[in-house]
Structure formats: structure tokens, C-alpha cells
Amino acid sequence: MKSSDLKLKTIVFILFLTSVFVFVSCKTTDTVTEESEILLEEPQEEVAEEIEIPEQEEVEVIEEIDETEIEEAVSEETAIEEEQIIRSREQALFYTIKYTRDYSKIGYDLDYKITVDDEAKEIIILYEESESDEDWKNNCYVWPWPLKLDGKTIWTTYGYAKIYKSSQDIPFNEFYRCIEEHPDYKIIIRGWSLGSAMAKITARHLCIRTNGAVQIDELTTFGDVKCWLNPFYSLKNQCKRIREYVNSNDLVTWCIPFYRRDVKNKVGDNFSIKRACKSEYHHTHYEECDFSKWEDDLDD
Question: Rounded CA gap, 123 and 120, in Å?
């Protein structure tokens, strides 16, 4: 064989080996590249899925806390506050008058509520305190004025006569109708502040209409105001139990010096100028007073 032919064959063989090596290298590189892309893509999807799921679970937990645990905590706190306030029967009575929200309004802002309690067998009428500018104006009209109750004249202040007359006897007639329908039920009249005057006038109206034949089981007033001009008349004989509560540091109860009340049931601290400077607080917080002196004669 000629040397030139050998050289040619050698060159061809080398080229063949080179092409085979290049082909194998390319296939290997493609395989590695595809595997690398798969490895990179799969963890990213897994991480994305792992991030989304915990976020949804946290939102659901927060909603459950807002709807249940917070409401229960507020209810429990409110119950504790009420339990701390209401420690005795008279405190509970004042609390009821103070926080009743469904009073009916009539005339010159006369606020009242009538309840027939079939379980306790009681008919109760409540009168609220001064609630408007009109009320406070009438509180200041203290000159004597006649008020006709079923044709009989009584004397009180102009302001109290004006308010009671403006009701056109609608609250009283409703109250009296309940009494007629339930003759064996207890008759209870309660009021606070300006409402104490309305309560006492209602009691006197009942005595006039029944000619004294019906006894009032309970007449209870808080922050009691004086409303009688006649020095000889009293409701004590017409009421089985009468309480007109005053706090010495509640200056509202000092007003109208030329008028009188039937009884004076003192509660709270003794008078002091420092305490009297907070007269409004004492007038609106009778639920904090000690009534034990006046509760010991209650009939069960």
C-alpha cells in the first residue's frame, strides 16, 4: 500500500471518530439541560403551593376569633359590671328607671312606662328624669299653680302642673285601667328627679279618683323633688310603703324651698361643699348609695 493512501485513510478515520464524539457530546448536553430545567421547575411549583395554603388557613382562624371570642368577652365584662352595680333591691329599682330605654313620650316631654307583671302580680308605672331643655325650663317654673285632678284642685308648681296637664290624663287613665283589670295586683309608682313629682301627683290622682278606697302598695322616688304647696296634705296614709330618697350632696333635692315632701329618706354621704360641687354625679348615681337603713322593713 502506498504511503499516500495510508495517510488518506488515517485522516478519514480521525474525522469519523471526531464526528462521533461531537454527536455523543451534544446528546449528553441536551439530556443534562432538560433534566436541569425539570429540577428547577418542580421545586418552584412546590414552594408556591406551600406558601398559598398556610395563608388561607390563617385568614380562617382570624374570622373565628372576631365572631365568637370577642363577643363572649364583651358579654362577660358587661355582666360583671352589672353585678357590681346592683347590690340591693333599691339599687336595682333605680338602675331600672335610669336605664329603661322604651319610655313613651307625651305632652311637654312627659316620659313614662307602664308594666303589668303577671308573674309577680304587680302593676308598675315609671317616670323618667329631666331629659330635654323643655323639662329643665319647667323645673324652673316654681311659682304656685292650681292643677285639677278629676275636678278637684291641688296646688303644686306651675312647671309640674303644666307637664302633668299636657298629658291629658292619658298615662294615668291607662294605669288606672290596668288596676281595674287586675284588682288583686300590687300598685307600684316610681319616679326619678322630675319624674318623682309626676309619680307623686299620679299617686294623689289615684286617691282622688277612688276617693281613697284603693291603697298604693309602693311609692318610691329617687332624687326626690318637693312638689306640695299644701302643708296639711300627705300621701303617707294612702301608701303602704313610701320612700322619697334624697342625697344631701344632690342639690336638685334642695330646690323649691317653700314646698314640701311627705317624707325624707336620706342616703349617701353627709353634706360637704367639696362633694356638693359634684352634685350632678350624686343626682345620677343613686345606684351607688347604701339603702340598708330603709330596706330592713320590706315585706317578703
Answer: 9
Sheet with 186-192: strands ordered across: 104-106, 110-117, 122-127, 186-192, 218-222, 242-247, 265-267
Neighbours of 246 (CB within 10 A): 25
In whole angstroms, give the CA distance from residue 197 to residue 228. 9
- Condensed to tens digits (0 to 9), the pLDDT of residues 253-297 reads 998 888 999 999 999 999 999 999 999 999 999 999 999 999 876
CB atoms within 10 A of CB 190: 22
Query: Hey, is 109 helix, strand or coil?
Result: coil
Helix and strand tally (H, E) in the chain?
A: 10, 9
pLDDT tens column, 101-141:
999 999 988 999 999 999 999 999 999 987 767 767 777 88
In terms of Cα–Cα distance, which of 153, 213, 202, 141 is closest to 174? 202
Q: Which residues contact 226 (CB under 8 A, 6 or more apart)?
A: 255, 256, 257, 259, 260, 261
Residue 188, amino acid: I
**Nearest Cα to Cα of residue 206 among 239, 181, 230:** 239
